[in-house]
Amino acid sequence: MIKKKHLFNKINKQELRLALSEESFERITASFYHYISIDSPTDLRNDLYDKWDDMKVFGRVYIASEGINAQVSVPEHNWKRFHDHLDTIDVLRKVPIKRALQDGSSFYKLKIKVRNELVAYGVPEELYDMEKVGKHLSAKEYNRAIDDPDSIIVDMRNYYESEIGHFENAVIPEVEISKELLPEVKRLLKGKENDKILLYCTGGIRCEKASSYLMHNGFNDVNQLQGGIIQYAHDIKEQGIDSKFKGKNFVFDDRLGERVTDDILASCHVCGSSCDDHTDCNNDACHILFIQCKECSESLKGCCSKECLDFFSLPIEEQKELRKDPNRVISRTFFDSRVKPRLNR
Ligand SMILES: [Zn+2]
Ligand SMILES: [Zn+2]
Fold this sequence. Notes:
- The chain is α/β, with parallel strands linked by helices.
- It has three domains: 13-114, Alpha-Beta Plaits; 125-246, 3-Layer(aba) Sandwich (Oxidized Rhodanese, domain 1), CATH 3.40.250.10; 266-345, no CATH class.
- It has eleven helices and 14 strands.
- β13 and β14 form a beta hairpin.
- It binds zinc ion (2 copies).
- Residues 268, 270-271, 273, 292-293, 295-296 line the site of one zinc ion (ZN).
């Protein structure tokens, strides 16, 4: 029985961000995932929320009957307590936790959601078998496999993520939502069923299911980067090996990216100058995610377009009134192909 207390956050984001900026302690950003059968996702959710709220853990966590995917920001002084608590939970004991490359303000509240699927690929269960997943390769093994001329590297993320950083010579599917990804990758790899396929994603979770799906679809040599780009970046640094990943690793929190190498692969969506800083449009009615350089950010006040700046400059009451009209599409005037990813910001 859970003691009576709020299991959801009720405070608005300005206050939460302010509270975060006034904290007197450091935080550690980390992530973990685990595909494991969970009998009651809701019970686990409530238990984690209860304990983590006490420890002032922030983050975004998804729990499904197939497992858990967690990105968290833990007060440094509670780091051990956080670990110890995970070890008391059967399904999470000894789960490998990856620390971020760069700490910093990643999350300002705790959100734990129960979902049907950990990664929203939307593929029916009969099209994969989580007992059969691709071979996990370490950073060193992955680099070696890349050197094999018969290998094909595939980025298993959405386009806006690979735009700012990716492995050299990777196949980059031009998809913007996860649901389109697996069928598109299958299409791109048609005829390569016997080649060495090297998958990678941010932290590894997307490749687990994706590799299983490809194996189920007749691919015979499917490999995945163990722990994703996050682990790879740690390992190349630690082992002093060359990074074949260039640029930034996109992350789904307030930091929006962690730099892996100094290469800048993208350009400002407004003026085209070299830039790989994502931002979301300041216009509350838009909030589109896009890349913008400092100069354009200043001249457009953080908005994605002149249209959004005009709207953003109206008195707030007028904005509210105009937003009631569902036919008034304020966003996507400029970037009609961009989607707004779920950043919960
Ligand atoms: Zn610019
Ligand atoms: Zn906008």
